[in-house]
Amino acid sequence: MKMGEDSIASKSKYPDHSKANAMKKFHFGHKIAVVYTLFAIGMTAMLIMSMQFDHELVTENYYENELSFQGRKDAFDNMATATFKVNVALEQGAVSVKFEGLPANEQPEGTLSLYKPDKAAFDEQHELVLDADRRMRIEPKGKQGRYKLELRFEIDGTDYYVHKDILL
To answer: Which of 72, 98, 141, 168 could make an S-S bridge to 135, C-beta 3.0–4.6 Å?
Structure first.
């Protein structure tokens, strides 16, 4: 070999072709197999995670409640135009519902429902009973977590509805 030929061979991109052979071994079929394997692992992980999450309906008669939506909407609109206020607050781990501006001769009648979206066993429903301060206080069964409060009541033949999300 001449001196010039030796220097040209050493400047070649793949002098012994080992890198080129390695690249030929990892071809398009291998890439597809890697993608499918990663997809299968990801789907299996999502399946396992979804099985650990508790999926419950908020109420047993969920579909019946959805059919009565228009009545609930009208009651909500009545509450927006009412001359009194209903304040929902948290007080030392309990839910407090207070009627402000309600005339003394008017007594609301209805129900207060607490729904725990992730645990139906902690759902509660109470008759609306106010104390002398026009307030009702409830300590939920589940001491922590997210609740949906629904207050449906009637005063002098007019329906009212209050909905609030609560985090204990």
So the answer is: 98
- What's the structural domain count of the chain? 2
The pLDDT score that the predictor gives to residue 5 is: 53
Mean pLDDT for all residues in the chain:
83
- Single-letter amino acid code for the residue at 10: S
**Phi and psi at residue 23, to the nearest 5°:** -70, -30
* Residue 46, H or E segment: helix 28-52
The answer to whether residues 16 and 79 belong to one domain is: no
Is 122 found in the same domain as 80?
Answer: yes
Do the Cβ atoms of 155 and 92 come closer than 8 Å?
no
Q: Please, are residues 140 and 95 in contact by the beta-carbon 8 Å criterion?
A: yes
Query: What burial class does residue 137 get, using C-beta atoms within 10 Å of its C-beta: 0-12 exposed, 13-18 middle, 19+ buried?
Result: middle
